Amino acid sequence: MIEKKGIIISSTKYKDYDAIINILFNDSFESVLIRGAYRKNNMNLFLTNKMVYADFELYQGKVNGLKLKSAQVIDSFSNLYNDYDHISIMMLINEIVRKCIIDIDTEKVYNLLLKLLKGLNSGKDVNKSICYFLIQLTKIIGVELMLEGCVDCNSKENLHLLSFEHGGLLCDDHRNLDVDSILLSAKEIAVIKELYIDDYSHFDFLSDLTIKELIIGFIYLIEKSFGLDINSKELINIHS
Ligand SMILES: [Zn+2]
């Protein structure tokens, strides 16, 4: 018997009533078969919902891999389903995690996702939480922006423009305003560097507009790095 905590990322109907759920554990990402989960009134029906955090008891079946013995919900983050903005944010985060999860450090993503869900569920600021999540996620998946010097010439002077297309800062000699980019002060650049290190405390130095631009930029960075589309970005009406 295997016992561990995990977060449900997706669920697919199998045969008529069975479910195959994909769970992010802190040491792996696994598919688990649940017999009869889609039957009306089945005690495991709640496990077909995304982003449920639960304690799972699993066993290795003779065929078809892991199967569920039982599960106890630890948190279903119900506050995140009360309004459109939170629901669309949950869809966005779920899609990003689902599409980026292959070949990455599952323990880091698990801890980061859990921190995000708990924070949002307890009422933390949505945009700041998402921005922090995306910065940390891109670091985990190895697409960190270059913030130490100009991407083109490595100059440490006159750095005001952050270009997601170019993967970092561009000095005044190399800035190219044609591309999707953000103008930042030296202080704002310093704050972004701190957010990479895991320091939330200076978030207040970023304006709401800058935070929104960063969210859009980091989603673009993920799409570009993985060659995929994050469809639910169209849904998000980033909070004002
Ligand atoms: Zn330059």
Ligands: zinc ion
Task: Briefly note the CATH topology name of the largest domain.
Answer: de novo design (two linked rop proteins)
Overall radius of gyration: 20 Å
**Strand-and-helix sequence, N→C?**
EEEEEHHHEEEHH
Residue windows where pLDDT falls under 50 for at least 5 positions: none
**Approximate shape:** elongated
Q: Provide the structure class.
A: alpha+beta
Q: How widely separated are the two ends?
A: 48 Å
Share in helix: 25-40%
| CATH homologous superfamily placement of the largest domain | Recombination protein O, C-terminal domain
Number of strands: 8
Give the number of helices. 5
| Strand composition percent | 15-25%
Number of discrete domains = 2
- Give a quick account of the main beta sheet: strands, pairing sense, barrel closure: 5 strands, mixed, barrel
Properties at a glance:
single chain, 33% helix, binds zinc ion, five-stranded mixed β-barrel, OB fold (Dihydrolipoamide Acetyltransferase, E2P), alpha+beta, 8 strands, de novo design (two linked rop proteins), three-stranded antiparallel beta sheet, 2 domains
Descriptive overview:
By secondary structure, the protein is an alpha+beta fold. The protein folds into 2 domains: 2-76, Nucleic acid-binding proteins (OB fold (Dihydrolipoamide Acetyltransferase, E2P), Beta Barrel), CATH 2.40.50.140; 79-234, de novo design (two linked rop proteins). The protein has 5 helices and 8 strands, in the order E-E-E-E-E-H-H-H-E-E-E-H-H. The strands form 2 sheets. The chain has a 5-stranded mixed beta barrel. It has a 3-stranded antiparallel beta sheet with strand order 7-6-8, with helices on one face. Strand 4 (53-60) and strand 5 form a beta hairpin. Helix 3 crosses helix 4 and helix 3 packs parallel to helix 5. The longest helix has 19 residues, at 208-226. The protein is elongated. The termini are far apart. The model has no long low-confidence stretch (mean pLDDT 91).
